[in-house]
Each structure stands twice: as C-alpha cells, then as structure tokens.
Write a structure and sequence with these properties.
single chain; mainly alpha; 5 helices
Length: 102
C-alpha cells in the first residue's frame, strides 16, 4: 500500500510539473506576433497607409510600441495581445490603402 501511495504522489507531481511547463510555454516571448505586427505595419506604410488610413496606421504603431514596452517588462501575455491587435490595425490600414488606389 505505501508503494501505491508513493507512486500516486509521484504521478501527481509529474502531472503538475507538466502542467506548469505547458503554461510556461504558452506564456513565452511572443517573437512571432511581434514580427508579424512589424511586417504588417511595414506593408501598410509601403502601400501608402500614412495618407489613406492614417488613424489605423497610427493605432498599429501605438500598439506595437506598447507591446515592445511590455516585452521589456516581461509581460509576455499582454505584449502578445498588443502585437496581435497592432497587426490587425495594420491589416486594416493596408486594406484601406489598397481600396483607395485608383
């Protein structure tokens, strides 16, 4: 009986450790999201978003700056959210720029 309890505790500890490792992996540095946001902003700028969709481009840049600050503070989850939102605003600016071209 003591062996079963010891084994059960070991399994419980292993599962708890695995769960924590998975959570840590999800909360890692949002490298891809930051890169996606930067590329989307660059594409919007190249398409003329500063002229055709200045508000959306401004919001994208503001959110990217916020994400970079949060990244420095290691607030990865919040930085990831801001980077994703920055990419969305940049994509909106890009769409607006493309529809504005004759």
């Amino acid at each position: 009986m003591p062996r079963i309890r010891a084994r059960s505790r070991l399994v419980t500890r292993l599962l708890a450790t695995l769960g924590l490792l998975l959570l840590a992996a999800c909360a890692g540095i949002p490298v891809q999201e930051m890169s996606d946001a930067r590329q989307a902003i660059q594409a919007a700028e190249e398409a003329g978003a500063a002229e055709h969709a200045p508000a959306a481009l401004r919001n994208a840049k503001r959110l990217l700056t916020s994400a970079e600050r949060k990244l420095q503070r290691q607030a990865y989850s919040s930085a990831r959210a801001d980077a994703r939102e920055a990419r969305q605003h940049a994509a909106e600016a890009l769409r607006s720029s493309r529809h504005s071209d004759p």
